[in-house]
Amino acid sequence: MSTQPTRKALLGLYGATLRAARSFKSYNFRNYFLQRTRDNFRTLLVENDPDKVSRAYEQVVGELAVLKRSAIVNQLYAGPPLPIERQGAAKGSV
């Protein structure tokens, strides 16, 4: 039986997962993983069962490693930006 991770450890993992999700070049992948991360941690931070939190923490640590590797591959083979990305960049530059 492992100990429950601290709130600081959970928030650190949350930040690392968000950074990994933001590193995707593809708009659809990036937005999917950002939303998935927010949803997963929203439920994880309100969970009261220490065993569930510990198992979920270990699972997310493993998924983070996969997410980082996937982001690297996505950066290597990224296509041109979608029109929605170029439009958002033009609004921000004004």
TrEMBL record:
GO terms for cellular component: L-cysteine desulfurase complex; mitochondrion. It comes from the Eukaryota. GO terms for biological process: iron-sulfur cluster assembly. Residues 10-60 form the Complex 1 LYR protein domain. Belongs to the complex I LYR family. This is Complex 1 LYR protein domain-containing protein. The lineage of its organism: Eukaryota, Fungi, Dikarya, Basidiomycota, Agaricomycotina.
